[in-house]
Write a structure and sequence with these properties.
Blueprint: H1 2-16, E1 28-32, E2 36-39, E3 53-59, E4 69-76, E5 84-88, E6 96-100, E7 103-110, E8 118-125, E9 134-143, E10 146-149, E11 151-157, E12 162-164, E13 172-173, E14 178-181, E15 184-187, E16 193-203, E17 206-208, E18 215-219, E19 223-234, E20 239-242, E21 246-250, E22 256-265, E23 292-294, E24 313-320, E25 324-329, E26 331-335, E27 340-352, E28 355-356, E29 369-373, E30 378-382, E31 387-390, E32 407-411, E33 415-416, E34 421-430, E35 440-449, E36 452-454, E37 466-473, E38 496-497, H2 530-558
Parallel strand pairs: 1-10, 2-11, 13-24, 26-37, 27-38
Antiparallel strand pairs: 1-3, 3-8, 4-7, 4-9, 5-8, 6-7, 9-10, 9-11, 12-15, 14-21, 15-20, 16-19, 16-22, 17-21, 18-19, 20-23, 22-24, 25-27, 27-34, 28-33, 29-32, 29-35, 30-34, 31-32, 35-36, 35-37
């Protein structure tokens, strides 16, 4: 009977595609770098030496953390002879690169998780190279325990150089304020660009008011990226501007915002190979097309591969006079002595602004810290990864002292949406009853400070930054099992309960970091992950049903 059940279960799992492979293959990490790079003609400087361009490569681990160990990257220079000269970028301290015959070998040792290995090169046109000369530069890599997919960059001497003018925008705004965006660019290279793509990347609190058929937008929640295509040749020495300026508005959720804007030859730049639909032709929409026109002369003081990609894109930062009310989430707990209690503490953003600490050019940082003081008479037996234990005075504790601490600091993500929240689940064991104020804990949300938190400068209501943790101890331990009915590893029942409450007057809890945003009607498109989620749920449900059926049949046979 057991064999028959096992065969049936295995057959069901095979049919559903849920069986585990005998051995997992090594992960594959692709090397990322530009697909093409243009070089200025030699000599590119008054001193008679080549004008060098930066060429950077890095490992793209996707959702998998890169492996620790020694990475070896080999740059094949043989094909570049007579076309381009390549050297290590001396401004970067690591990795070390050594030239060996017609290769450049760069090694980097990764000792900490989360580090993305990579390297930078400087590339210039070789002396005597002809306009239009081109060759492929190929980079391979090795590391123990993984496969590294090579990267290839087409190096070309000469080409267009699209330069985006800086915008004269107002930086200090109020919600609802509008301003024109007179975008302009020039081609300062020695060849025409065959079609161009305008990129506009606006963070959640900014939106464009117009919509055009040759523009398409993908809203990522924190940032909306719009791409507008323009056909035709954009000649060397020519300057261009939008026929009609766009209008940018600060929304009601705006606080610290950014606008990125760039111009690229069609088929290059950040949109090449992206998941955005190609904004070409006359797609259904408003019937209006965003157009460009020539200007009298090139206004940028600065040549089909862009010779200097660094000036294709600009960034602008805004400050909006707005607020965000962070309200702490406490809990009211009831349990008997010896029981375990699961509770969630944290905060929610009551708006109106969203807050982000993920700004271009700056290291990402947590938006808020939640300072949790555990009620006396209870001990923490499980804590979230985002929280670390501290002493009662805020002093640090060792890695071996993370459970049973009187106080915890929990760091939020780098973004908190205007209707978002952060919750941290703890498991507490009730040791004894403690009367009075000592038996209460607290939750305080704010800006991280050396010994705790301080009120955020954007938060107008400091009184709801604090919430109570109330523990009502009912007496002796209960012999009844927990509601789940699952035994502990020792086989004895583990009683538990769980209750949490939000601050008075607060809206009902929503999804952590939830909410979606729109950055204006230039265009809007995207895809839903619902079919994938539904499929995953069906597979898990089917696998779970097989497992439960097997366990129940086994129990009856054993009985």
């Amino acid at each position: 009977m057991r064999k028959r059940i096992s065969l049936l279960a295995a057959a069901g799992l095979v049919a559903l595609g849920l069986t585990t492979p005998a051995a997992a293959a090594d992960p594959v990490f692709p090397l990322t770098g530009p697909s093409a790079l243009g070089l200025r003609l030699h000599p590119g400087t008054p001193a008679g030496v080549a004008k060098e361009s930066l060429l950077a490569y890095s490992l793209d681990p996707g959702t998998t953390a890169p492996l620790q160990g020694e990475y070896t990257f080999t740059v094949d220079l043989a094909a570049l002879a007579g076309t381009a000269d390549v050297r290590e970028n001396p401004a970067v301290a690591h990795p070390e690169c050594v030239r060996a015959a017609a290769t450049l070998v760069c090694k980097e040792t990764v000792l900490a998780p989360g580090v993305r290995p990579g390297f930078e090169l400087l590339v210039g046109a070789a002396k005597g190279s002809a306009d239009g000369a081109n060759a492929d530069l190929t980079v391979t890599g090795t590391v123990k325990g993984a496969t590294i997919r090579p990267a290839t960059t087409r190096i070309t001497v000469g080409g267009p150089d699209l330069v985006m003018d800086r915008l004269p925008l107002r930086a200090d705004l109020v919600p609802g304020q509008k301003q024109p965006v007179p975008l302009a660019f020039a081609n300062t290279g020695n060849r025409p660009a065959h079609g161009v793509v305008l990129e506009l990347a606006a963070t959640r609190g900014m939106e464009f008011l117009e919509r055009y058929d040759n523009c398409v937008t993908r809203d990522g929640g924190r940032t909306a990226v719009t791409l507008c295509t323009f056909e035709g040749d954009f000649g060397p020495g020519e300057a261009y501007e939008l026929a009609d300026p766009l209008t940018l508005r600060a929304t009601g959720r705006a606080y610290e915002e950014q606008l990125g804007y760039g111009i690229y030859e069609t088929g290059t730049g950040p949109q090449a190979g992206s998941a955005l639909p190609a904004p070409a032709g006359k797609a259904p929409g408003t019937g209006k097309t965003l157009a460009v026109k020539k200007r009298a002369a090139a206004t940028s003081a600065k040549s089909a591969t862009d010779l200097e990609p660094g000036d294709n894109r600009r960034e602008f930062a805004f400050r909006t006079a707005n607020t965000a009310d962070f309200a702490a989430i406490g809990a009211a707990l009831a349990a008997k002595t010896g029981q375990s209690v699961t509770a969630e503490f944290g905060f929610r953003n009551l708006g109106p602004a969203w807050i982000s600490r993920a700004r271009t050019g700056q290291a990402p940082a947590a938006v808020a810290r939640t300072d949790i003081r555990i009620p006396a008479g209870a001990s923490v037996t499980k804590k979230p990864e985002a929280c670390r234990a501290v002493n009662a005075d805020g002093g640090e504790r060792t890695a071996q002292q993370q459970l049973g601490a009187p106080r915890y600091f929990c760091e939020s993500g780098v973004t908190v949406l205007e209707d978002g929240q952060e919750r941290y689940a703890f498991e507490l064991r009730v040791d004894r009853a403690v009367e009075g104020a000592a038996g209460k804990g607290s939750v305080v949300v704010g800006e991280a400070a050396p010994q705790g938190v301080v009120t955020h400068r954007f938060d107008p209501k400091a009184d709801d930054n604090t919430a109570a943790i109330v523990l009502d101890v009912k007496g002796g331990a209960s012999p009844s099992p927990s509601t789940s009915g699952s035994p502990t590893p020792s086989g004895s029942p583990s009683p538990s309960t769980s209750v949490s409450v939000a601050p008075s007057g607060s809206p009902a809890p929503g999804t952590v970091g939830g909410g979606t945003g729109s950055n204006g009607p230039l265009a809007s498109t995207g895809s839903s992950a619902a079919p994938l989620a539904l499929g995953a749920a069906m597979l898990l449900a089917a696998g779970g049903a097989l497992y439960v059926g097997f366990r129940r049949r086994t129990g009856r046979v054993a009985g």
